[in-house]
Every structure is written in C-alpha cells, then in structure tokens.
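Lab meeting, action items carried over

1. Structure of the two-component assembly. Owner: GW. Status: complete.
Input record:
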Amino acid sequence: MTIDGTSLRTAEMEPDDLLEPGQARSPVPPPARFQASAPSAAPEAAAVKPGLSVRLEALRAFYGEAEQVKGIDLDFHANEVTAIIGPSGCGKSTMVRCINRMHEEIPGARAEGRVLLDDLDVYDSSVDVVAVRRAIGMVFQKPNPFPTMSIFDNVASGLRLSARRRGDLHPQVEAALRSAGLWDEVKDRLQEPGAGLSGGQQQRLCIARSLAVDPEVILMDEPCSALDPIATLKIEELIDELKKSVTIVIVTHNMQQAARVADRTAFMLDGKLVEVGPTQEIFTTPSDPRTEEYVTGKFG
Amino acid sequence: MSTPGSEAQRLARFNVSPARRRKDKIARATILAGTVLALIPLVLIVYYLLHKGLGAWSWSFFTTDPTGQSFFKNQSIGGIKSAILGTIEIVALASVIAIPIGIGVAIWLVEYGRASWFANTVRFFVDVLTGVPSIVFGLFIYIVLIVGTGSTYAGYKGSLALSLLMLPVVIRSAEVILLLIPGALRESALALGAPRWKVIFSIVLPTALPGMVTGVLLAIARAAGETAPLLFTAAATHETTFDLGKFMNSLPVQIYNDVTSPTTAVVNRAWGAALALVVMILLLNLIARLVSRRSRLA
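Predicted assembly:
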C-alpha cells in the first residue's frame, strides 16, 4: 500500500486551526483512514493494516550550531522492528525525533536532509506537521499520561486533540487498550485517573494513546528505561504483536532488549550510522570493528 | 592497625563536645527569639483589630450605609454596607480586566515567547510593574482618565487602577505555574498530532488550573486591600451604588477617611471596617490555600 498523498498533504483551509509561524498553511481534515478504522464488533482483532516504511536521506540535525546527527542514510522496513543502539549522546534520540518532526519543537533546533514516509517527504513545505505526527506516533522514555485525565480520556485524547473526533469514542478506546494489552487490567476503572496506574501500566497507556489515532509508524524512545523487568517484558511482547500493523523504531540502551525485539538493528556512534543489518548479524558477525567492540561491551 | 585502649576511648571521637552543644543551644535560642519577635507585631495587630473592631460590629453595621453625620452625639453615623459592596464591585471589575489579560500574557511568555528578546523585555517590564508603588497606578488613571478627559471620579476608574496593580502579580504567578508543567506533557500531546493551541487549552491549562487559581486569588486579595489607587479614582461616597460609572465607596478608602475623624464613634467604625476587610482577605487566602492543596502536578 502506498500512502494517499492527500491524507498528509494540505487540502483545504480550516479556519479554527491557528498556525505556528513557519508551519505549513491549512491543516488537513481528518483523513478518511482515521474515520473508517473503528473496529466495533470484534475489537480484539484490530484491523490489520500494514505499516509504512521510513527512509532517512542525508539527515542532519542541529541544536543551534552544534551538529548532533551528522548525515544519516537509513531505511526502516515496513512492519519490522528496528532497534537503534549506541552510547549515550550519540544522537539516537535526536535522529528518531526528526522522523516525526518533534526535533524542531526545541528552540533553536533544526534538521536538514529528507525523511521519507513511504514516498512522502515529511519535511516538504506542503506537508502539515500535525498530520505527520498523527501518522507517526511516539512513546517517550518516561510514561507521561495526562495528569488531569482519566484512563479513558487519556486514550481518547489523541482522537479528540488531533483527529477532531467527537461523540462515542468507546470502540476506538477499547480497541487501542486491547492492542496495548491493557484492556483487561483497566476495563472496570476507565474513569479513574491515568496517573494512578503503575509505571508499566502507564507506559502501556501511553502506547494505547498513540495507537488510538491509528498511526503507521511508532517511534519508541527508550520506552522501558523507567520500568522494572516484568513491565519491560510486557512491553516487549507488545512490540512483537504491534509490528503486524505498524512499523516500529525503538531506541534502546539495553542490548539484550534490542536482541529480543528487533528484526534489524542500527548502531550509531557520534552522530553517524556505523552499521545496520539483521539483528542476529549485528550481534554475532558485525562487519565494523567498532560495532563488535560496542556489542561485546568493550565501551559505551 | 589497632592501638591498645578501651572501647570507650576508641569511640570518644564520636561524642558531641560540650562546646558544640553550647553553640547548638545558642543558635536555637537565637532563631526562636527572632521568630517570637516577628510574631509580636502580628499578634498585636490581630488583637487590636479584634478588640476594637468587634465592638463596632452589629447587624446594622453591615446593613446600613454611612450617613456622613457625626456632629451631634445622638445622630446615627451608619455602617459600612456601601464600602463592602463597593470593594466587591470594584475588585470584581478589576479582576475581569486583569485576569484574562494576565493569563494571556503568561501563556504567551511561556508557550510562544520563551527566551526571545521581546519576551525577556516583557518580563523585565512586568517586574518593574511589580515594584511600582500602588499610588502611582492611581495617579496614572487620575491623570489620564480624570484630568485628561476633564471628567470626575468613577468606580470603573478605580477598577482600572487596581487592574494595573493586579496585572503583574497575575502574570508572574501564572508564568511560574506554567513553567512547572513538565515539558514532556506538551511533547506527548504534540506527538499525538495536536496543534499547539489545542495542547495549551486541553492539556497545559487544565493541569495548571489549580495553581493559577491560587495566584489569581492572591492578586485579588492584594488589590482588595489597596487604598491609594482608589483615593482619587473612585473617591469616597456614602450611598451604595451598583453603577460603576458613579462615585463609589470602598473599604480601604472608608477606613482612611474614618480614622482621621475627631469623633470616637467614627474612628471605631474604621476599626470595624478594618476587621471586615481583614476577614474578607483572610477568606480569599483560605480559599487559595484549599485550592492549591488540591493541586497535584504530576
């Protein structure tokens, strides 16, 4: 499947949307795929729809004058899990944040090069950043449910905030919570505050929240680093399940985690891509000596 | 290495020396004395207010306007009804003006202006505004709206002076609260594909609300107690009025006028009015405290 260009490209003016200076004019109406995808009858079998591939071309990212990502070409295959490993400060997170254009939210930060979602350049001036972020969800290091909202509202927030969905969102919320493996634990207390859950549950709530808007790609920036081993295991099982319907990019410090969940692994060092390949290969027969030193624990 | 010697000798270095004990006692006594010293004027003020003010309180004290008569002993001097209602009206209008503008400025500073030179300039002038004596705001309104237009005192002019006074307090307190909202919260909402203004209205403001209410109530309390901005903007009068275009009485101004009167009964009314004002502000502070206790920033 190729993405229908109109869903991300700007189509018609919607006067109730204030725009950032520099942001592309006129956001798009909620794309059809966001409206038709509500699995109502049998939510446990979430509608299987393929993810999209992501390709980075000569991607560079800056904080002010400091270059943090120094020209990366990298493919993320559709419906695969790609792990990004590398020592602290090597630019993993920055690179990932460029994919859904969150990098530019930091004052003084900018990116160069191209990020292709299927065949659409997300940095193209005709592309609406808001639509990009709907298509490319993100899960952060620390679980961060919205503190004023209930469990239900947290999951519904994406639909309400970005896709402008009103009315009964129960089917979508249930589907997202089921996909995130959280439904059975919270179905009797949907109206309780999301912040009252355990850390692992909060992180799965955040995953459900990003799944609810039905993205094609999910970026995970060290999603388990604040979690205990059991909660981590649950998230990893979830990742395995989720890749049927989305493309997953996961930044991790934990090499065992990369080995457990990733189909492919990319090793970064000092803002550059050293090596990328099937996970098995990266961990057993890397072609670059630096990769071997890192995965065997000689530095990093 | 182990030196011969009893267990007690080995442990002696852990004992508190007498000199240290003395120093500790002196330091504690000094701090306690300072605290007591600071409390003395506070207790005296509250004591005098209750002692003198409660005597003036009665049902009619709150339900009648001041008559302005005090020359003859048997004349009724009246109560403070117009002053209480005037204060409420003037402060309410001042709040309606200052709170939306103040919160708007704070939102702009935190969410849009950030560290730009213009935002820093605004912050600088807000700080300057915080330090401006309240009488200057009164003078400003007096010169612009009364001398400048050749008109006379009015309740709304007092409100404008008070709103100028409240504005920096509201901006600064709201800005501090908005800065406390974790950036991760904004980021996760932005990453969901929410436009920035929706992130602000649906995520940031609801999270910041309890803290903002506290700051706003404190600003209101501060404005309610001000005399100087009202003296030559709203003036003093006797009758209760609900027309903000007319002269309007207020508690601080009535206290100011009454306390200089040669008649004991009128001075006593000032005490009663002062107690009423303190109770009103105390209530606002209590509400602010209750609200902030409920706030839970994640």
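2. GW to write a short summary for the group page. Key points so far: The first helix of chain A runs from residue 5 to 8. Chain A touches chain B through 34 residues (CB under 8 Å).
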